[in-house]
Amino acid sequence: MPDPIAVNSMFARIARRYDVANRLLSGGVDVWWRHRLVAAVRRQPTPDVLDLATGSGDVAFALSKGLPPTTQITGMDFCQPMLDEAVIKQQSSGRCPNITFRQGDGMALPLADACYDAVTISFGLRNMADRHLALGEMLRVLRPGGRLFVLEFSQPYAWFRPFYYFYLKRLLPSIAAVVTGDRGAYEYLCGSIERYPDHAAMTAEILRAGGRSVEVKRMTLGSVALHIAVK
Ligand SMILES: C[S@@+](CC[C@H](N)C(=O)[O-])C[C@H]1O[C@@H](n2cnc3c(N)ncnc32)[C@H](O)[C@@H]1O
After folding, report:
1. How many whole angstroms from 51 Cα to the centroid of ligand 1?
2. Which listed residue, 140, 146, 169, 213, has the most CB atoms within 10 A of its CB?
3. Does 18 contact ligand 1 (Cβ within 6 A)?
4. Domain range for 68
5. Do 227 and 203 meet the contact criterion of CB atoms below 8 Å apart?
6. In this structure, which residue's CA is closest to atom 27 in ligand 1?
7. Residue 103: what are its φ and ψ, rounded to 5°?
8. Could you tell me if the CB of 120 is within 6 A of ligand 1?
9. What is the distance between the alpha carbons of residues 210 and 114, in angstroms, rounded to a whole number?
10. What spacing in Å lies between the alpha carbon of 229 and ligand 1's midpoint?
11. How many angstroms separate the alpha carbon of residue 163 from the centre of ligand 1?
12. d(C-alpha 208, C-alpha 139), whole Å
């Protein structure tokens, strides 16, 4: 189970190089995963959106560009240095004024009940110490009929697993060590992906937390999954 203090300080250490490392280590495919997430959110009107574990804000920025400008977006994360990166990007682009970045813990959201139409979380749930609690919190702040979008690593198709884990365990930490200077953070990444449930078990977790009508979109040979649930 991830230790929240260790997770917070790890993201604080890699915050400044997080975006570069993401693009490089995923070969740029991470942009497409987030694009699929935004396309799914767009299918229904969503005046108020929470992007939890927003990190350096890439999902919040993609939502801002992909949704009507009247949409209000809250980008929330418990790691201030990651939020600082998001704010620097927002200020330097001079765009996306409809995003407010705020600090907050996903396991005890500093937000009222039923105040969002959509909650998105991208590559964040895996890092939370208590997924059931975090999912419950995300559902709590959704309005009835609101939708939860969980984009996360998953277990790939069986034939692809040996190649995938060879890349994650052998190659990725060495490349990440050069890019971020923090090999340990990316060894953690690999372990956390290996321990994470497959798409069917994740669906069961969302249902147990109170989500309904769960839909799953598997991407990149199953290595990433987008779960969509309704409150
Ligand atoms: C891998 S990054 C993902 C950032 C962004 N969503 C993206 O797609 O690039 C994971 C983020 O989750 C945040 N996080 C982890 N545990 C959290 C918690 N309990 N509450 C809020 N944020 C958390 C970390 O600080 C980090 O910014």
Report:
1. 10
2. 146
3. no
4. 4-159+198-230
5. yes
6. 55
7. -85, 140
8. no
9. 14
10. 20
11. 26
12. 11
Residue owning the nearest CA to atom 23 of ligand 1: 53
Tell me the one-letter amino acid at 105. Answer: D
Look at residue 182 and tell me if it is in a domain: no
Contact of 61 with 34, CB cutoff 8 Å: no
User: How many angstroms is it from 162 CA to the middle of ligand 1?
Assistant: 27
Cβ of 127 less than 6 Å from ligand 1:
yes
Helix locations, the chain, DSSP H: 4-14, 18-25, 29-41, 58-66, 80-93, 131-140, 161-166, 172-180, 183-195, 199-209
What is the domain-level CATH number for residue 154? 3.40.50.150
User: In angstroms, what is the span from residue 124 Cα to ligand 1's centroid?
Assistant: 4
- The total number of structural domains in the chain stands at 1
Give this prediction's pTM: 0.95
User: pLDDT tens track of the chain, all 231 residues?
Assistant: 788 999 999 899 989 988 888 888 888 899 999 999 999 999 999 999 999 999 999 999 999 999 999 999 999 999 999 999 999 999 998 889 999 999 999 999 999 999 999 999 999 999 999 999 999 999 999 999 999 999 999 999 999 999 999 988 888 888 888 877 888 877 888 889 999 999 999 999 999 999 999 999 999 999 999 999 999
Half-sphere exposure of 121 (CA within 13 A, CB side): 26
